[in-house]
Write a structure and sequence with these properties.
The protein is α/β, with parallel strands linked by helices. Helix content is 41%, strand content 16%. Strands 1-10-9-2-3-8-6-7 form an 8-stranded mixed beta sheet, with helices on both faces. Strand 6, helix 5 and strand 7 form a beta-alpha-beta unit. The structure holds adenosine-5'-triphosphate.
């Protein structure tokens, strides 16, 4: 468990409360990374711990320094563990009023390279160069993940998002690679869309999208657009996968510094991330019940924090989830 900064610690306390209440057989090793230190000892310890445990639940870790050479810890964790894909299932909750209903988009994002290669330098005073890196191997792994997901989950269409009209080599390679991979999946429709048009289409006609694949920075932006469409930063979880490790976190990866300690942060995104973690570990019974308790709290009980237009506190949401969980698991013998 890497609580991170801002609202991370309070959200993690809710996860622990729900797990304790539900008798979930998971122990957390908690590692705090101080954002103000420039050394990497805690970060290295966190990475070692994830290698040992295989999985992590994570809040956003701030990087306060803007000094060149000081890496974002979040990016470093994903790169070190080769968590090459990020997957966000952006699905509307019927109980939440938002601009659109029935959105169900799987956003697949390259998670370790592209604009996040962290290769920046000032070549001469006043001129900064920043490298965007696209490799065939990673583009192929991401495209294959997207098409496999579509095939295994009854999805009909994959859309590759790019800016290959301008970035002809980098985005061109990403696009060409996904077109090649698409040939192995003749039953799934494949199309592509330029990132700027994609943003317009998302806010005007989001139902045309099914599975989307894209490079790193576009994924950061588009994931926030879609999370905004279904209800904001506090709902959707994000999964980071590599071949060996998996890290689960809130989908929009916000720190929430301004709302920390006020009992108003929406606990749902982190609780959904904990459900993803349980599904990944094969604790389906616990995952299903917690997920169901969350859905009932949002859709039937309408217990909503202010970010969703409600008046409930974070703790009221969590208490309601516990109440629902108790009913759902009545009579179950944990031992
Ligand atoms: P910072 O480093 O300043 O915290 P950030 O990029 O991480 O910036 P935030 O400002 O933390 O982004 O988050 C963006 C917006 O989303 C803010 O208005 C924040 O209050 C809101 N937000 C993020 N997480 C939650 C949550 N769990 N519940 C309610 N609102 C949230």
């Amino acid at each position: 468990m890497l609580p991170g900064g801002g609202i991370g610690p309070e959200l993690m306390a809710y996860v622990k409360e729900v797990f304790r209440f539900g008798g979930v057989p998971v122990d957390f090793e908690t590692i705090d990374i101080d954002p103000s230190t420039e050394g990497n000892e805690e970060l290295e310890y966190a990475i070692t711990s994830i290698r040992r445990n295989g999985v992590a639940l994570k809040g956003n870790i701030e990087t306060k320094s803007l000094t060149a050479g000081i890496q974002s810890r979040n990016v470093a964790i994903r790169s070190e563990l080769d968590l090459f894909v990020s997957a966000l299932h952006c699905k509307s909750y019927p109980g939440i009023k938002s601009m659109y209903q029935d959105i169900d988009i799987m956003l697949i994002r390259q998670n370790t390279e592209g604009e996040y290669a962290m290769l920046e330098h000032e070549s001469v005073a006043g001129v900064v160069e920043s490298m965007k890196v696209v490799t065939t191997d990673n583009a192929e792994r991401v495209a294959r993940y997207g098409f496999e997901y579509a095939k295994n989950n009854g999805r009909k269409k994959v859309t590759t998002i790019h800016k290959a009209n301008i970035m002809k080599l980098s985005d061109g390679l990403f696009l060409e690679t996904s077109k090649k991979v698409a040939k192995d999946y003749p039953d799934i429709e494949h199309n592509d869309m330029i990132i700027d048009n994609c943003c317009m289409q998302l806010v005007s006609n989001p139902h045309q999208f099914d599975v989307m694949i894209m490079t790193n920075l576009y994924g950061a932006i588009v994931s926030n657009v879609i999370c905004g469409l279904v209800g904001g930063a506090g709902l959707i979880s994000g999964r980071n996968y590599g071949d060996h490790f998996a890290v689960f976190e809130p989908g929009t990866r916000n720190t929430g510094t301004a709302i920390a300690g006020k009992n108003i942060a929406n606990p749902i995104a982190m609780l959904n991330a904990s459900v993803d973690l349980l599904e990944h570990l094969g604790f389906d019974y616990h995952a299903t019940n917690i997920k169901h308790a969350i859905e009932l709290t949002i859709n039937e009980d309408h217990i909503h924090t202010p970010d969703l237009g409600g008046t409930n506190s974070s703790t009221e949401v969590v208490q309601n989830i516990l109440k629902r969980l108790e009913k759902l698991t009545e009579g179950h013998n944990w031992m």
